[in-house]
Automatic annotation (TrEMBL):
Belongs to the class-II aminoacyl-tRNA synthetase family. It catalyses: tRNA(His) + L-histidine + ATP = L-histidyl-tRNA(His) + AMP + diphosphate + H(+). GO terms for biological process: histidyl-tRNA aminoacylation. PANTHER family: HISTIDINE--TRNA LIGASE, HISTIDYL-TRNA SYNTHETASE. CDD domains: HisRS-like_core (cd00773), HisRS_anticodon (cd00859). This is Histidine--tRNA ligase. PROSITE patterns: AA_TRNA_LIGASE_II. It is found in: Cytoplasm. L-histidine binds at residues 92-94, 122, 136, 140, 306, 310-311. GO terms for cellular component: cytoplasm.
Length: 501
C-alpha cells in the first residue's frame, strides 16, 4: 500500500495579505498621488534596499535579547573569519534614510529632502487594517532644525491626505511634542529610560484604551481581553496623577492650536523642558498659520506621543475620521493612517554628531484598507481590459489581429485563451471588469464586421443606475459595426463617463 503524498495546506501567513487587481491598483494610485504631492513640494525620490544590518536599524521596536524581536531577521553567510552579521527586513523607511544620510552626507545637498515608498515588515500581532507587511510613503527633511521644516511636513501631509481622496473633514493631523513628557518625567523624578519608554508606549494607546487602560499600564500592568498580560511602567502614583491632569488639560476639540498650548501651560508639572516644547509648538503654529493651514485640519493634542523610540521633539499623527465597517457590517475604527515627527538623534547613531531631521509617513496599505471598508474603493478602481472572444482555432489570426489593433491604439485588451464556450467567456469578461467584449464569429468575419458588446452599459442597467431613456438610446448594449470601426467603437465605450464611479 502506497502512502498518500503529504500535501501542504494552501494558506497565507497571518498579517501577509494577498492583493490583486482592484486592491493593488488602489494602493499604487495612492502612492502615485501622494508622491506627486511630495515632488511638487521639492522632495527627490530615494530607494534603499529591503534589508539593513540589524545594528543599523537599531532597537526602536520592542526591546528584547533576540535580534528578530519586532522585525524579521536572518544571519548573513559567514565572512572569512566565520562571523555572520544579522540582517533584518526594514520596519520603516526612516531608519534606512538615517543610514543613507550618514553614509553619504558629504555629497548630499543640505538640507536633504527626500521621499520614498515601498513595503516594510514588522514582526508583531496583526489586526484589522494592521499587517505584518505593508506599504509606506514617506517624506523627510534631514539637516534643518527650523520649526518651519516641521510645519512644512505637516502642511504637506494635509495636502497628501486630500490627494489620496479624503476631503478636509475626513481626516485630521494631530500634533504634539515628546519633550512635554520629558518635562513631566523630570519634574516627577523619573530617570530610568526603560520606565520612560514603557510609559510613552502606554500613553500612545490612550485613544484605544482610554485613561483606565493607560493608567494600568503606567502602574503595575494590564491584563487584556485575550488574557495577555502587559507589564506596566511602575511609575509613582504622583507622576501617574500628573499625567492624568496633563492629558485632561487640553482634551477638547473646540480649542484652537494656540488655546491648546495655553491650556497645557496652565496644567503645570512640565518643567523647563516642557516649556521649551511649548515654544517649539508655538513656532510651528505660527508657520502653519502663515501657510493658511486650517485649525480643523491640524490640531495640537498632548496625547500624541508616537510609539517609536527615536522621536525627539514634535510628533504628528494623521487620524481617519471616516466611518468604516468590516465585511459583516460592524463598525471598525481605523484611527491612525500615518504619522511622523522630529528625530534629531537618529543619524548621530552612526556619526556621533547630532543631525536634525523631521518627516511624515503615510500608511498606504492601511489607508487603502480603510477606504475599501468605507466603500470608497470603487471610484478608484480601474476597469479590466477589453476581452476579444475566441470561437474557432481556424479564425485565431482574426482574433490576434483585433487584440493587437486595440493595444496599438492604447486600449488595454486581451484575447481569451481558455477553452470555454461563448457563455463562459462572457462571464469571464464580466468578472474581469471588462468595459467591452469584441465578438468576431464566422458571420462577422465573412461580412467584414465586428460585434461589440458594451459591458459597462449592461452593468449600469442591471444595477438600475441608468433608467433614463435618452441614456439607453445613446448606450445600446450591443452594436454591429464595420471591422474598420473596431477601435473607434471600443474607444467610445472606454472613454465614456462611468456610472459606477
Amino acid at each position: 500500500m502506497t502512502d498518500a503524498p503529504i500535501r501542504p495546506e494552501a494558506r497565507a501567513p497571518r498579517g501577509f495579505a494577498d492583493r490583486r487587481g482592484r486592491d493593488l491598483i488602489a494602493e499604487r494610485r495612492l502612492v502615485t498621488r501622494v508622491s506627486a504631492v511630495y515632488e511638487r513640494w521639492g522632495f527627490e525620490p530615494l530607494d534603499t534596499g529591503a534589508f539593513e544590518y540589524a545594528d543599523a536599524l537599531g532597537k526602536f521596536l520592542p526591546d528584547a535579547d533576540r535580534p528578530n524581536e519586532g522585525v524579521f531577521a536572518l544571519q548573513d553567510d559567514p565572512d572569512d573569519e566565520g562571523n555572520g552579521e544579522w540582517m533584518a527586513l526594514r520596519y520603516d523607511l526612516t531608519a534606512p534614510l538615517a543610514r543613507f544620510a550618514a553614509q553619504n552626507w558629504e555629497t548630499l545637498p543640505k538640507p536633504f529632502r527626500r521621499y520614498a515608498f515601498g513595503p516594510v515588515w514588522r514582526n508583531e500581532k496583526p489586526g484589522p487594517g494592521r499587517f505584518r507587511e505593508f506599504v509606506q510613503c514617506d517624506a523627510d527633511t534631514v539637516g534643518s532644525d527650523r520649526p518651519e521644516a516641521d510645519a512644512e511636513i505637516i502642511a504637506m501631509a494635509c495636502e497628501g491626505l486630500q490627494a489620496a481622496g479624503l476631503a478636509p473633514d475626513l481626516a485630521v493631523v494631530r500634533v504634539s511634542n515628546r519633550k512635554l513628557f520629558d518635562g513631566l518625567f523630570e519634574t516627577g523624578g523619573v530617570e530610568d529610560a526603560g520606565q520612560k519608554l514603557t510609559a510613552l508606549r502606554a500613553i500612545d494607546k490612550y485613544d484605544r484604551l482610554g485613561w483606565e487602560g493607560v493608567a494600568a499600564l503606567l502602574g503595575e500592568g494590564r491584563l487584556d481581553e485575550s488574557g495577555d498580560y502587559t507589564k506596566g511602567a511602575q511609575l509613582p502614583s504622583k507622576v501617574i496623577g500628573a499625567i492624568e491632569g496633563f492629558l485632561a488639560s487640553a482634551n477638547s476639540p473646540d480649542l484652537s492650536r494656540a488655546e491648546t498650548l495655553d491650556a497645557v501651560a496652565r496644567s503645570g508639572n512640565i518643567g523647563a523642558v516642557g516649556e521649551a516644547a511649548l515654544a517649539e509648538l508655538a513656532a510651528i503654529d505660527a508657520a502653519l498659520n502663515a501657510m493658511k493651514v486650517d485649525q480643523s485640519a491640524v490640531r495640537f493634542d498632548p496625547t500624541i506621543v508616537r510609539g517609536l523610540e527615536y522621536y525627539t521633539g514634535a510628533v504628528f499623527e494623521a487620524e481617519l475620521l471616516l466611518e468604516t465597517t468590516d465585511d459583516k457590517g460592524r463598525a471598525v475604527r481605523f484611527g491612525s493612517i500615518g504619522g511622523g515627527g522630529r528625530y534629531d538623534d537618529l543619524v548621530a547613531r552612526f556619526t556621533g554628531e547630532r543631525l536634525p531631521a523631521t518627516g511624515f509617513s503615510f500608511g498606504v496599505s492601511r489607508l487603502a484598507s480603510a477606504l475599501r471598508a468605507a466603500g470608497r474603493g470603487a471610484a478608484d478602481a480601474v476597469r479590466g481590459p477589453v476581452v476579444v472572444i475566441a470561437f474557432s482555432e481556424a479564425d485565431m489570426q482574426h482574433y490576434l489581429d483585433a487584440v493587437a489593433e486595440l493595444r496599438n491604439a492604447g486600449v488595454a485588451a486581451e484575447l481569451y485563451l481558455g477553452r470555454a464556450g461563448m457563455k463562459a467567456q462572457m462571464k469571464y469578461a464580466d468578472r474581469r471588469g471588462a468595459p467591452a467584449a469584441v465578438i468576431l464569429g464566422g458571420d462577422e468575419i465573412a461580412a467584414g464586421q465586428v460585434t461589440v458588446k458594451d459591458l459597462d452599459a449592461g452593468r449600469a442597467l442591471a444595477a438600475g443606475i441608468a433608467d433614463n431613456e435618452a441614456w439607453k438610446a445613446e448606450r445600446p448594449g450591443q452594436v454591429v459595426v464595420p471591422r474598420t470601426d473596431l477601435v473607434a467603437t471600443v474607444r467610445r465605450i472606454v472613454d465614456a463617463p462611468r456610472t459606477d464611479a
